[in-house]
Amino acid sequence: MVGVDTSGPWRDRLAEYLRSQLGGDRVAAFVIEGPGGDITACAIGLVHQGLPGPDHAGIFGQVQTVVTGWPFRRRGYGRAVTYALVEWLTDQGCTLLTLTASDVGAPLYASLGFTPSPRTMRLVLRPFHRA
């Protein structure tokens, strides 16, 4: 998150949310551990229920986070965790997946079948992460 202050109490809220939701049918994380037990790569996704449309059933998957540690890039780890997450989201009934791609990650996602959507916009109503 370039240009965003990533410190603050939001980290505690995130940890609590993941503790309460992981292992269910709405949130999943796929992790590759490196030597010593550190996280080498990770992909986290969520399932959302929405309204059905002409090209989807109304069950959306959101690829929330994909990260690979700098020393472990270009080894296929990011692809492996992303692919596992896409399969899990598909198994949950998702017929439309979304994500926000960095310039570095975009080629990986395109190789997995994701396409750019020029209509995506967002509105941050307040700096919640500082609260």
UniProtKB/TrEMBL annotation:
InterPro entries reported in the protein's UniProt record: Acyl_CoA_acyltransferase, GNAT_dom
UniProt keyword Repressor present: no
Molecular function as annotated in GO: acyltransferase activity, transferring groups other than amino-acyl groups
The N-acetyltransferase domain, residue ranges: 1-131
Top-rank lineage group of the source organism: Bacteria
Keyword Transferase belongs to the record: yes
Keyword entries, A-Z: Transferase
Protein name: Acetyltransferase (GNAT) family protein
Source species of the chain: Kitasatospora viridis
